[in-house]
Every structure is written in structure tokens, then in C-alpha cells.
Design goal:
The chain is α+β, with helices and mostly antiparallel strands. It has 2 domains: about 150 residues, Nuclear Transport Factor 2, Chain: A (Roll); about 100 residues, no CATH class. Helix content is about 35%, strand content about 30%. It contains 9 helices and 9 strands. The strands form 2 sheets. It has a 5-stranded antiparallel β-sheet with strand order 1-5-4-3-2. A hairpin with a 5-residue loop joins strand 6 and strand 7. The radius of gyration is 29 Å and the shape is elongated. It starts with 8 loop residues before the first strand and ends in a 20-residue tail after the last helix. About 25% of the residues are buried.
């Protein structure tokens, strides 16, 4: 892979609904004070699930494809399964990994069936690999429903680190719009709180607080999306799942704009005008009548 190339090389063994959600799908975890990303992810994946994923990865690395095939779901079994597994194993560099991190965890429980999707990041002598294992447990039965292996140019933490250098104009514009929308909202809230008298002030505050619509940008990839039917507090948001990319979003601060225009119009209308016939400026002629 050429330096600076962002494309990933990977081979997949597809099967479950969770796998189709994507390799980098990470569970949205509630932020807890003092907890690390690893701890949060480990709490979302019990030891039994992690042990099962480790077993499938270990047998893939040692090319014990028969062991994997016997435990694979029927939907992914087939005559080409060994070939696919061999291609995946070839993407994993040989040797002992310098580090192994759990970077993604997703769980779906329905009708007594538990589907899990765990993603691990391997650093093997400076070569980075993502390995995803999706399993289904029904009672005591555990089957493999999908696997992914991707070679990455750098670690996820490095790829998704927030930086201002080398970004597209769209991403810079999104940040600028976020700052503008936030500033308008705060300014309108302050003016609203200080304005007396103001009928239904609490309704105005609610109207100002909420932005309408949503334009979101993935800071790592530059992909964007637009939602017309959406609302956001203070008209801005920023979110990043553990080891995932930052997602920045901005809404139209409609309430703030309406209130600021109303406040400006009423302020201009209440400005006192100069009294007529009271011009005493120097040099003006005086009519004695």
C-alpha cells in the first residue's frame, strides 16, 4: 500500500445482520467519569464473548480452517470458505503482536438469541490489522456468522485523531458554521433573559435553544449527511465513539435568528426621534418672527 493511501485492503466472510452494519460499527457507550475507552468496551463485551472471538482469531492465524468451518453458520459455509479464510489469514502479518486492542463491540439480543460483533486491532511489528468476529449464541450453541480482516495504514487512534491540517474546505466550513450557530444561540439567550417585559419568555428560550435540521460531517473521511427532520440543542454537536471518527453536526439556529431579528426591529422602532423646531446649531439663522 502506498504511503498516505487511506483505502483499506480486506477480505470478508459475511453472514449476519450485525456484520452488514460495517467493520467499524462501535457501540455508543455512555460516558463515565474516569473510565478509559478499553474499560468501556470490555464492559460491553463479557469475558465469554471475548474468549470466543480470541479462539476464532487464533485458529485463523494458525490456518486451522477446518476448526472454523465446523463452527460456522450454514449461511456462510460453502466450497469457497477455505479459500476465503486463506486470503484473510494472508493479510495478517506473521509473528507475535506488539499490542491487541478491543476497538469495537456491538450486541443484539432478540428472542433468546445473542449476536455479538467484536473488532480487534493488532499491531504486528508496526503493521496494523483489524479483525472482526461476529457470533451467534442460542442456548449453549455458538456459531460463527461472519469474519472480516482489514489491513490498515495506521492505527485507528491515529487515523481518527482530530487535527486541523490537511482537511477539505467542507470540513473547515462546517466548523465555522458551528461556531457561528453557537454564538448566535448564546447571544439570543442572553438578550432573551435580559429583555423585560417579554410575554412567554420560557417559550422563546425553548425556541432559541433548539436548532432545526442537521448537517453532519465525518471528520476523518469527509463524508457528510443531511437530515431535514432533526433537532439539536444549541444547534451544534460533536460525537466520537471509542476509537471512532469525530462526527460534527450543525443545525439552523432558527429560534435564535427569529428572536435577534425581532429584538433588532423593536429596538429600532423604540429609538426616540429628535424634537421638531429645536435646532440651535451654530450659524443657524434666527427668525425673530
Amino acid at each position: 500500500m502506498e504511503a498516505g493511501q487511506r483505502a483499506r485492503v480486506g477480505v470478508s466472510l459475511r453472514g449476519s445482520r450485525l456484520v452488514r452494519l460495517g467493520l467499524l460499527a462501535c457501540v455508543a457507550l455512555t460516558a463515565l467519569a474516569g473510565c478509559s475507552r478499553q474499560r468501556l468496551l470490555r464492559e460491553s463485551a463479557p469475558p465469554q464473548a471475548r474468549a470466543a472471538a480470541h479462539a476464532f482469531i487464533a485458529h485463523l492465524r494458525t490456518k486451522q480452517f477446518d476448526w472454523i468451518a465446523r463452527r460456522a453458520n450454514r449461511r456462510i459455509q460453502g466450497p469457497k470458505m477455505d479459500t476465503t479464510l486463506a486470503h484473510m489469514a494472508a493479510l495478517i502479518p506473521p509473528g507475535k503482536a506488539n499490542s491487541v486492542k478491543l476497538v469495537g463491540a456491538q450486541t443484539d439480543i432478540e428472542n433468546g438469541i445473542t449476536e455479538r460483533n467484536l473488532t480487534y486491532e493488532f499491531d504486528v511489528h508496526g503493521q496494523w490489522v483489524l479483525i472482526n468476529v461476529a457470533t451467534r449464541r442460542h442456548g449453549r450453541s455458538l456459531t460463527l456468522t461472519g469474519m472480516h480482516v482489514y489491513r490498515m495504514p495506521r492505527s485507528l487512534e491515529s487515523l481518527n485523531r482530530f487535527t486541523l491540517s490537511g482537511k477539505s474546505p467542507l470540513r473547515y466550513a462546517t466548523l465555522a458554521l458551528m461556531m457561528l450557530a453557537f454564538a448566535l444561540t448564546v447571544n439570543a439567550l442572553i438578550l432573551c433573559a435580559r429583555t423585560r417585559p417579554l410575554r412567554r419568555k420560557w417559550l422563546w428560550i425553548l425556541f432559541i435553544l433548539v436548532g432545526v435540521g442537521k448537517f453532519a460531517v465525518n471528520w476523518t473521511s469527509g463524508r457528510w449527511g443531511l437530515q431535514v427532520l432533526a433537532v439539536q440543542l444549541f444547534s451544534v454537536s460533536a460525537f466520537s465513539a471509542p476509537y471512532g471518527p469525530w462526527i460534527f453536526a450543525v443545525s439552523v439556529p432558527l429560534g435564535a435568528i427569529v428572536f435577534l431579528l425581532r429584538h433588532r426591529r423593536e429596538g429600532a422602532g423604540s429609538r426616540p426621534s429628535a424634537p421638531l423646531g429645536n435646532d440651535t446649531s451654530a450659524g443657524a439663522p434666527v427668525n425673530p418672527g
